[in-house]
Amino acid sequence: MLDLRRLRLLCDLSRLGTIAAVAEAHTYTPSAVSQQLATLEREAGVALLRRTGRRVTFTAAGHVLVQHAGAVFAAMEHTTAALAAVGAGVSGPLRIGAFPTAVRTLLPATLVALGRDHPALELMVTELDPAEVPAALRDRRLDVGLLHDYDVVPVKPDPTLDSVPLLSEPVHLAVPNAGGLGSLADAGDEPWILATAGTLCHTVTLQVCRAAGFVPRARHHADDFATVLALVAAGQGVSVVPALAAAEPPAGVRLLPLDTHRRTRVAYRTGAAAHPAVAAFTSAIQAAADSIGKKP
């Protein structure tokens, strides 16, 4: 019988590439990970890895096991969901991961609705960058999470997760009221407020600006949209901001529409869609998104 925790370590090794990376992801020591993988090989009865010094590569059997592991994990999620569905209503812990804008705008109404309709649910919210959500779901630190991408920079789907569309929101160019800017094309010579290099927001801004024929000149770097809008209002530059983050812009900010959209999805482990708590959350947050007029 294969141990599912060890099988997950093998899949993480395939995804992350090194035992050290797997150890860091699980807060184990590399030695502990190696021991668990050696035990998994004994359980499987075949060699799964080739070891050359500190380097490991997969054998043919190792590749086969990783390819089939997704179906094993999905079957377990289906089983867990089915058992929960015959239990005593919607109850138990529900760990939610969401990016800051969604925590401020979508989650309050969602949590109120869930608390009213399903008082036995234990709701726990973690503010998290969408890039961190897939790993948190796979590691079972979250039960549901919000992911997003942009139509100009699509993110490749994660095969270990299922998701449903939540909303598609327009993206704006935020400019100071005092300036005479009327379009993105006018902003080529303006100072810009950019997100941290390497983040999705930073990449999107570069893509949008390059499509308009220029590279933005950074004056400030900020990742929180409230901070970005405050800097724009102070005349410190211009920035790209999704509509959800600019629902109530501060005085002194003007929003110019761009031909770009941010797309948000509700994600969970493959096979977990029918879990009563997951289904209840998905329904509640879709209602919250609809109520603010940001329908998919």
Automatic annotation (TrEMBL):
CDD domains associated with the record: PBP2_LTTR_like_6
Q: Pfam families per the record? A: HTH_1, LysR_substrate
Q: Which InterPro entries match?
A: LysR_HTH_N, LysR_subst-bd, WH-like_DNA-bd_sf, WH_DNA-bd_sf
The HTH lysR-type domain is annotated at 2-59
Q: Which Gene3D superfamilies match?
A: Periplasmic binding protein-like II, Winged helix-like DNA-binding domain superfamily/Winged helix DNA-binding domain
Q: Which UniProt keywords apply?
A: DNA-binding, Transcription, Transcription regulation
Q: Which family does it belong to?
A: Belongs to the LysR transcriptional regulatory family.
Q: What is this protein called?
A: LysR family transcriptional regulator
Origin organism is Asanoa iriomotensis
